[in-house]
User: What shape does this take?
Amino acid sequence: METILEMRSITKEFPGVVALNQVNLSVRAGEIHAIVGENGAGKSTLMKVLSGVYPHHSYSGEIAFAGQPQKFRDIGDSERLGIIIIHQELALVPQLSIAENIFLGNEPSRHGIIDWHQVYARTRQLLQQVGLKESPSTLVGDLGVGKQQLVEIAKALSKNVRLLILDEPTASLNETDSDALLELLLELQREGITSILISHKLNEIAKVADRITVIRDGMAIETMDCADAPIPENRVIQRMVGREMSDRYPPRQPAIGDIVFEVRNWHANHPQHPERQVLKDINLQVRRGEIVGIAGLMGAGRTELAMSIFGRAYGKRIRGDVYLHGAAVDVSTISKAIGHGIAYVTEDRKGLGLVLHDDIARNISLPNLARVARGGVIDRTRETGVARDYREKLRIRCAGVTQPVVNLSGGNQQKVVLSKWLFSQPEVLILDEPTRGVDVGAKYEIYSIISQLAAEGKCVLMISSEMPELLGMCDRIYVMNEGSMVAEFAAAEASQEKIMSAIVRAGSEK
Amino acid sequence: MNDHIATLPPTPAGKKYSGFLRRNFREYAMFLSLLVIMAFFQVQTEGTLLMPLNLTNLVLQNSYIVIMALAMLLVIVAGHIDLSVGSVAGFIGALAAVLMVQHGVPVLLATVLCLLAGAVIGAAQGYFVAYHRIPSFIVTLAGMLVFKGLALTLLDGQSLGPFPEIFQKLSSGFIPEVIDSDSLHPGSLLLGCLAAGALLLLAMKQRAAHLRHGMEEEPTQFFWAKQLLISAIIVFFSYKLAAYKGLPNVLIIMSLLIALYQFITNRTTIGRRIYALGGNEKATRLSGINTRRLTFYTFVNMGVLAALAGLVFAARLNTATPKAGLGFELDVIAACFIGGASASGGVGKVMGAVIGAFIMGVMNNGMSILGIGIDYQQVIKGLVLLAAVWVDVYYKNK
Ligand SMILES: Nc1ncnc2c1ncn2[C@@H]1O[C@H](COP(=O)(O)OP(=O)(O)OP(=O)(O)O)[C@@H](O)[C@H]1O
Ligand SMILES: [Mg+2]
Assistant: This one.
């Protein structure tokens, strides 16, 4: 097979960090090439170099595409050759329609007047190609993340893509949506499109990839061929983290006590459409030292439930009671909820979790400034000390705790959000997709921290779309669907099939 | 998983400097531009700029802009803007005149009432911004019209003065001297030297603490060069001022306020929260911070300082005129942006805003001495604002 892309000795430095060190990458025409590596290994940076986000004089090394040496000055240059990147963070305009988004910046027009007929016709065709059954005029903001991802791909297809780069496309998708997306990748492969896929989900990579390149600490460690014979996951992990990892989940001896946290008859309505009920009569309990999972599909109302409990951060007309140690508590504002020892780790780290241009230390201390201050005056030394502690404990990869979080890799940002809430020493920790975009090694570390909290007698409520993670960590699992609790399983009796069938059953009863 | 950053070879000294310079380019550049601008006008005006009399004037003319810039910085950092400050300052000046001149209310009581009125005005605007989510641009644009109109009504379109003597001292008074002397005021000089020494000690203490905990980044040479330059400048200016009538009262007020706001923004939880609020309001709210109340208070604070500025200005003119405060908001906002504040919130420094205000002040003063018409002054100031922000954005993207 011929080589379509050749990257040679790419080196890229940021102040204080060598993000890429003499990386070589070669991609064959028509293959699906997976790139794996720990958080901060340099995967996204490599792709940004390739797509011209970092212009050619800002790194050293050479890029050849379709046999020609290339010096991209910006994204436009690479797009003209059919290299299209879909970034880790989606880049769609929520207020615009699907059609407008797809053709944004490259609208079919005559003399500057948009030809809407053509826009809609081509959008319909593209949507069919990616298998998205939506009207072209639907607003992107009204779509779920899974569908938005498909819109991104449709947008790429509209630009005559030859090399499609997907940076963690399935990080925020549930299994059904992920499968659909991977299926689409294979379909595109049959049409002759080459793709580069970055993912932390090794099972997905095993499904679609022809070759895997492992990046560690800014260096390309190895490229493995897996088109014919699958490569054992453990071997990939071993190359990624540089050591043997036998277990995915830390060992645990649950010591479960009395009921500590309880939500009774919880109702909430949609904030913009107050007549629409989003949460219906939810009841749940968490015992001392227990890890409780909430499973469900995207849009089941899990995040809404967590946020409405956390000081009514979501929803209108909220009814219901929250009990701690058997007594009703007032959680009507976020600071009251925090005061009662409840913490919520958001799934949307950039939008809701971090002040991006602030440094790591300032982000960690934000909800608990009082604990690093005396009489309203912040003790910077103490604050930095705390941040350094968490940097060590969670192995946050950074140049220093005064580095702005905006420059951290996605997984490391997640660790900062987690540190921020661990520092508030909560009694009830609500985790919303705590390992989204986090590499295998770091996942293990996060799981260890969670089970340690449980061992200390804290209550953990864990929302996750990764079912293996729920099954691997939780003592009990609730299943939510369309705003209601539809099932509850003890760890011993839960399985992926049972959870899925509970969801399907609840859906069909309607 | 070892930390590959920690094992990075130590960076060579030259590289360390340039890295530090790049990250802190803004602060040094600002400060140096102010010095360059001063040097330029000093030469152009053939030494008039730094004459004791003119220097005193410069401080007096600039004080109300600096005072308002301190509060405006917080408003901008919180992600808002206040267009009404000029009108509010004018209105409060008028109110002061009505109270003191027409009704003979005692000076102290009237001053307190005026500051309270400022707080109420700020609260009213802040209420709409914080609790009803009306964009601050609109609320304060309305406020600008309202208070301009009210100032006119209050004064009946006339000027009102003169103010009681004690009130005039607020702006035109100088700190009392123990030894009376006509040529040099030793008390003022001494106070200036003391302030310079205190600042130096404070900076050294802070640096030592930072070094102990490995938090210091500034290379030693930079630190000393900067600190000695600042001390020298303070001593030099107090010497100049001492040669005329000594340190103006308003300079003392201004310095104390600058120190206070510097402290609030750098060291206190409330300051930190305002920065977080401007950086990401949602994340800040989810961290349990009452973002609405915080927004509300930044506007109350703005109202109070706008009122204080109004009083200082009225005292300086010794009359309240319906035109007072006209266009102040432009200088104040420009000072913050020249000083590196970001229009999208979350970024900005008190010292930046102060230096920005002085850059505007020196240009106003220098150009007036040179006899440049008000028309060209505006053009030049506008271009300087644009250039400053342009350089800023350019370096940020590099
Ligand atoms: N603009 C920047 N300034 C400074 N450092 C940066 C910048 N962008 C990335 N880095 C650093 O470069 C390294 C590689 O980051 P990159 O985003 O490529 O990681 P990644 O492999 O994509 O990780 P993840 O799986 O978490 O997304 C990290 O240490 C990161 O902190
Ligand atoms: Mg990445």
User: Anything to note?
Assistant: The first strand of chain A starts at residue 3 and ends at 14. The CA atoms of residues 127 and 297 of chain A lie 23 Å apart. Residues A 43-44, 88, 167, 409-410 surround magnesium ion (ligand 2) (CB under 6 Å).
